[in-house]
Amino acid sequence: MKNRLSDLNNHLFAQLERLSDEDLTPEQIDTEAKRGEAIVTVADQIIRNAALQIKAAELVAEYGSNPEPYLPQIEGKAS
Asked: For position 75, what pLDDT does the model report?
């Protein structure tokens, strides 16, 4: 598993595809819905963390330093 925001996006869309499967039984739909809720809970925290990193990078940039080390990793560019 990779740990980039683009990977999170891929996981969210994969879960959406699983929930959209018309061949699922009611029990499978319930299982996928519960899994989806758990994924959303974790995703929300990851997004909040990334937003905090961006705010930190903005503060660092405001005072003239390189903000790149504080930015969330996107496609392997920043750490």
From this structure: 59
- Say if CB 39 and CB 15 are below 8 A apart: yes
The token pair at 79 is: 């750490």
Domain that holds residue 56: 1-7+36-79
How far apart (Å, rounded) are the C-alpha atoms in residues 42 and 38? 6
Q: Give the three-class secondary structure for 72.
A: coil
Check: CB of residue 35 under 8 Å from CB of residue 54.
Answer: no
What is the tally of structural domains in the chain?
A: 1
Report if residue 59 sits inside a domain: yes
Report if residue 56 sits inside a domain.
yes
pTM for the model stands at 0.72
CA distance 31 to 55: 36
Does pLDDT of 76 surpass 70? no
